[in-house]
Amino acid sequence: MPKGQPAAVPDDGLTTRQRRNRPLVVVHTGTGKGKSTAAFGLALRAWNQGWPIGVFQFVKSAKWRVGEERALRVLGASGEGGTVAWHKMGEGWSWIQRPAKDAEPDNPDNAEKARQGWEQVKRDLAAQTYRLYVLDEFAYPMHWGWVDTDEVVEVLRQRPGGQHVVVTGRNAPAPLVESADLVTEMGKVKHPMDAGQKGQRGIEW
Amino acid sequence: MPKGQPAAVPDDGLTTRQRRNRPLVVVHTGTGKGKSTAAFGLALRAWNQGWPIGVFQFVKSAKWRVGEERALRVLGASGEGGTVAWHKMGEGWSWIQRPAKDAEPDNPDNAEKARQGWEQVKRDLAAQTYRLYVLDEFAYPMHWGWVDTDEVVEVLRQRPGGQHVVVTGRNAPAPLVESADLVTEMGKVKHPMDAGQKGQRGIEW
Q1: Which residue of B has its CA nearest to A99?
Q2: Of B147, B153, B204, whose CA–CA distance to B181 is shortest?
Q3: Is A198's CB within 8 Å of B19's CB?
Q4: What gap in Å lies between CA A108 and CA A122, rounded to an integer?
Q5: Do A68 and B44 touch (CB under 8 A)?
Q6: For residues B205 and A18, is the Cβ–Cβ distance under 8 A?
Q7: Of A96-105, B62-71, B152-161, B194-203, minimum mean pLDDT range
Q8: Do A10 and B64 touch (CB under 8 A)?
């Protein structure tokens, strides 16, 4: 991506360096592909900086993220960059069981698992356990009302230190988008499934 | 990402398996962040499949992609997944020297370097050197007319074997988008630079 001059310099009392290193809340939302892959791409940069990385996977199925998980585990164990901790919440969740794209999965345990995952994230933020948090698919539990969006916004606003947080998922709630620093909407222009092609290894997982 | 049933099953004479494993041309375009990071996230999946990966970096500056490059080199050398070959074309190119966002850099050598890079990609496609090609920022030389878009479309259409190709960059030309299998438009909703914050390490590079 190009670098250049910011469009406006705010009157916030910060030096350019302080402003530059202000930790970010990043949101990848929209109906297109690339929300999570871009988050894991960011994790490569964080790894290269030697940052501890925490991945919290809020939606799980047998195949998804296996490539990302294995790659990040190999990187974390290499000793050449940051560490990687990979948390899977809600083992056994599956989009496949969903009745429809935006409907809640019908497993009543999922709401509780999502809340437990968020409680873990809160503890880690308070303890400054990681420098980059990838909250993968975390937009969904907020969208479904399982985790309170206003609380998430407030916790992120008050998080200590230099912790960057990336949230992915469709339907990112408006208060989260409003409070985030960097928001990208991945829009679907074209998808192979529209042409009758199912997902394949190496591409979808 | 959710998996499910395709919207339509085409009458193309292929079995589901054949259609499923049909290699893809993927385009990440738009003005938002995440185009390249999502491409490198895809590379993690390809690596996990043991696929040889070829990265062709069509725009270069001192800091960009250093994290991705180092991570992918460590992964490629780990022996636990696919190999990684990283090609930098146009060493010394820099967005910073650009007069404006969509204008051509004023270095006349760049067009020739881009063409040389594309010739290398063509040779590798013909030889089936890689299974995944990341043509990073390759949309620009097409947009600027340095590389002929129609030729690119034709070469991609006729590429042999099971080679997947990802092209990133703003202003992806319409013929490329039309011929691609999977296209995502990364739209900018909000960027820290709008609030006076410059790029920072671990996030932008």
Answers
A1: B4
A2: B153
A3: yes
A4: 23
A5: yes
A6: no
A7: A96-105
A8: no
pLDDT digits (tens, 9 = 90+) for B4-22: 556 666 677 777 777 777 8
CATH class of B21-94+105-186: alpha beta
Q: Which amino acid would we find at residue B61?
A: S
Answer yes or no: is the ipTM higher than 0.90: no
Query: Which of A22, A33, A40 lies at the smallest CB-CB distance from B44?
Result: A40
Please report where in the chains the tokens 């069981």 appear, as a residue: A97
In what side-by-side order are the strands of the sheet with A164-168? A84-88, A53-57, A132-136, A164-168, A25-29, A182-190, B182-190, B25-29, B164-168, B132-136, B53-57, B84-88
Domain A44-95+107-185 has CATH 3.40.630.30: no
**Contact flag A197-B75 (C-beta cutoff 8 Å):** no
As a whole number of Å, the CA-based R_g of chain B is: 17
Q: Which two tokens stand for residue A52?
A: 């501890």
> Which chain B residues are within 8 Å of A4, Cβ to Cβ?
95-96, 193
Here the tokens at position B100 are 């404006």
Q: Could you read off the pLDDT of B28-52 as tens digits, one per residue?
A: 999 999 999 999 999 999 999 999 9
Question: Taking a C-beta distance cutoff of 8 angstroms, is the pair B74, A80 a contact?
Answer: yes
Gap from B125 CA to chain A (nearest CA, Å): 18
Q: Is B88 helix (H, G, I), strand (E, B) or coil?
A: strand
The pairing of strands A84-88 and B132-136 is unpaired
List the structure tokens of B109: 């050598």
